[in-house]
Amino acid sequence: MIIKVPASTANLGPGFDSLGMAVSLYLEVEVLNISDRFQVDHVMPDIPHDENNLIVKTALTVYPGLPPLHLQVKSNIPLAHGLGSSSSAIAAGIELANHFGKLNLSDKEKVKIGAKIEGHSNNIAPTILGGLIVGTEIDNHFDTIKAPLPDFSLGSLCTGI
């Protein structure tokens, strides 16, 4: 089983903390096998390799009956650079719990769980739903709307000046 979730940015000008957008960088979690203990293989510095890993901690929060797993994690999402690396880990943990717990969570339920863990929905919602998301939180109730996002590309031109 492989779980692939995108990075996101919520630093979108005047939409700070209410707008979020998925971007084309990814965290990938491969379940290698059920094991006698949690083992998370990765090459990221200062990230736990055991049940203290955010992916595993999230999965255990959502589904305490999760069996110990051996996971391989690959990511091209830079840590602590405003691209929602923790939201990606949380989303992967929710998906892991959903699969092994046979929870059949809706996307709305996944966003609600992720927002409660993360404390806000601006990164977790686009990570789970994709695209551009407008979100709000009132009295610990999270609401999100997926906004239309036109197909576009960005480029730059160097004039030599």
TrEMBL record:
Any single biological process term in GO: amino acid biosynthetic process
Keywords, alphabetical: Amino-acid biosynthesis, ATP-binding, Kinase, Nucleotide-binding, Transferase
Superkingdom assignment: Bacteria
Residues in GHMP kinase N-terminal domain copies: 53-131
Record's keyword annotation contains Disulfide bond: no
GO molecular function: ATP binding; kinase activity
Pfam families documented for this protein: GHMP_kinases_N
Protein name, as recorded: GHMP kinase N-terminal domain-containing protein
Taxonomic source organism: Lactobacillus helveticus
Lineage: Bacteria, Bacillati, Bacillota, Bacilli, Lactobacillales
